[in-house]
Amino acid sequence: MARYEFPVNKAFHRRRLDEFLFDRFRSLSKAYLRSVLKDGVCEVNGIPANGGLLVRADDFIEIEVDGSRMTGMAAEDIPLDVLYEDGSVLVIDKPAGLLVHPTNYERKGTVLNAMTHHLNRDREEGDEFIRPHLIHRLDRETSGVLVAAKDQRSSSILCSHFKRGLIEKRYAAIVSGAIERDSGEINLPIGRNAEKKLWEVTPGAKASITRYKVLRRSQRYTLLELEPVTGRTNQLRIHCAAIGHPILGDVSQDGEEFRRLCLHASRTVFWHPDGGRKVAIESEADFLDEFEAHADGAQPR
Questions:
Q1: Environment class of residue 70 by beta-carbon count within 10 Å: exposed (0-12), middle (13-18) or buried (19+)?
Q2: What pLDDT is recorded for position 299?
Q3: Is residue 217 part of a domain?
Q4: Residue 51, domain extent
Q5: For the segment 13-43, what is each residue's pLDDT rounded down to a tens digit?
Q6: Cα 221 from chain centre
Q7: 116 and 51 part of one domain
Q8: Structurally, how many domains does the chain consist of?
Q9: For position 269, what pLDDT does the model report?
Q10: Residue 28 is inside which H or E element, if any?
């Protein structure tokens, strides 16, 4: 634990204490800072205070935090392929192999670190620090469209839309084998196997539904468009493997080895948090050309 002391500057006069701390401790998660405030180890002018207190210019703040947790929002100059950006929303094309957010084992080199740098690269003294709010996530191995909000209001609206099924998501995937039906639905419950520490089809678990449409076939592979109706962990990978057509490159689901997992978030459509219009973002997978080049049945290289 480390002790920090701050005077409140004029920019935060009559702002909430938690907002001030979020700006000062940019590398700590908001959830952690809220827990610290609940523990009563933050004082304003020598008096324990909660996050809702309105601070004033020149108030003196003292707080103890765990410095080892300062990694979540550390800015790193990692290139981003920006597909769309405005005052409320940032949408990128995530490459395969890039972790979305820091973990206890990997604290740097993630999408969140890159977004934090991107959103604050032109920040001047006195400007409020911008924290990216991920609206959804992609596996490390999955590429494609990833949406983030730039403020809490936009995040709350978009997260609500996701929960209500108002956001459309489509994925492109190459799977092993030739799927005969042109379209269909996979309805198999997915749960976590505590012993194996992985997610799998589990009788009696939460309902999980994936719709698919065949885009192209070859002798050995099928190019699919996948629509996750529900959003279980690893749902698309588990469902494709469960029907005997694992995604190419998904060795964890007994798929064939390949240079990458052939799963790509190809299209996302959402209502803009400022209201009144839909935003449609598309991205093409880098494995599509390889599928076309090897449509005679040879494995893509």
A1: middle
A2: 56
A3: yes
A4: 2-69
A5: 999 999 899 888 877 878 889 999 999 889 9
A6: 29
A7: no
A8: 3
A9: 97
A10: none
